[in-house]
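Section 3.1: Structural characterization of target chains.
Under the original work plan, the team committed to producing a structural model for every single-chain target entering the pipeline before any wet-lab resources were allocated. The record below documents one such target. The sequence was received from the expression subgroup and is listed exactly as submitted; it comprises 98 residues.
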Amino acid sequence: MGPGKKGGMPQPEGTTIVMEADTSEIVGKNLSYGYTVSGLTRDVYQEYIKLASETFPKILQNKLSDTEGTFMASTEDHSEIFHVSFKEGKLSCIQYIN
């Protein structure tokens, strides 16, 4: 599968995929795909969510502290959701739900 195909969003620059999972059956949606990455920095996270908001313009949540961030947004018709959970120096998660 590969995360680059999910929701049209690439894997964040400079990150390494640690784990990936198709959670469609658990979530009960057509497609629910998530992956965990290491190496996501605050600067790359901020650029990444800026890029994501072009495809997913309905911002549902956007919080950022010095070390953590949460971004959740959907397409205009709410049919697709994109979620990024950022933790500086720890594992960060990215999820796409359709």
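The chain is about 20% helix and 40% strand.
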